[in-house]
Amino acid sequence: MGAVTTSRKPSEKRALWARQLAENYNIPYVERKNHSLETLLDSYPWVLVADSRRLCCHTPDGVLFFHPNMAAVRLRHLKANQPDKMLKAMGLGPGQKVLDCTAGFCSDSLVAAWAVGEKGTVVALEQSLPVFLVVKDGLEQAGKEGRFAPLAARIELKHADFRQFLVQTAAKSFDVVYFDPMFDVPAHSASMVPLRPLACHIQLTAKDIEAAARVARRRVVVKQRSFYPFSRLGLDDVLDSGSSPITYGMLDLEGGR
Ligand SMILES: C[S@@+](CC[C@H](N)C(=O)[O-])C[C@H]1O[C@@H](n2cnc3c(N)ncnc32)[C@H](O)[C@@H]1O
Q1: Which ligand 1 atom is nearest residue 131's CA?
Q2: DSSP-derived secondary structure letter, 29
């Protein structure tokens, strides 16, 4: 288990916020005093720091903070009427309900939130507590103002393991169920470096796809490296990736299952 602390000279309000966060999620609270993060990381595998602006998480591998990652570029392309591969694989339209089983930074959820519009819903699940808390705080800040505000506010982020969530969820509750698990063979992506030590690394199984197919009305979609053997998961429909190292496997449920 990691710990929660503040910056070296926090305001009273911020220190209280950090203490409450620690209490609500049962994480040890450490008075920062003059401790360096290196010293704290000798005792804890990760340390959440509530500084004056945001919540971030330090690990020996780097600092995880919320940023919309590639969502900004993708949204710019969508606004210029350029297609988005994930949205093509999902076949998403306004008013639909999406379950993003692997929230991470919620970049994909932000793009899905754009596609479903104000009448749609995006529920995102994150199993890792520090990732969940950093991204929840980031979405809350982004939801207040700025260009991502309406999209961030449309995402309901939950701290949950998709395996438990899927079995507890009623059949056909979402139009699309989506997975973007940590890759077995990591792609070169600088933004993923601080996420990796904190993330849940389980590999998807055919049983997970079955569980998702019960909860989805229209489609189950999985993002993976282009060389991934999608048929292992029972996904024979794969988006043509062209020269891209990433592609999407799909299970279309509308033909009746
Ligand atoms: C590759 S990242 C997802 C990135 C995300 N699509 C985005 O746009 O930022 C995978 C995330 O899924 C989370 N995850 C993996 N297995 C999970 C599970 N069983 N339940 C919920 N979250 C899980 C990991 O902790 C990690 O944060």
Answers
A1: 27
A2: B
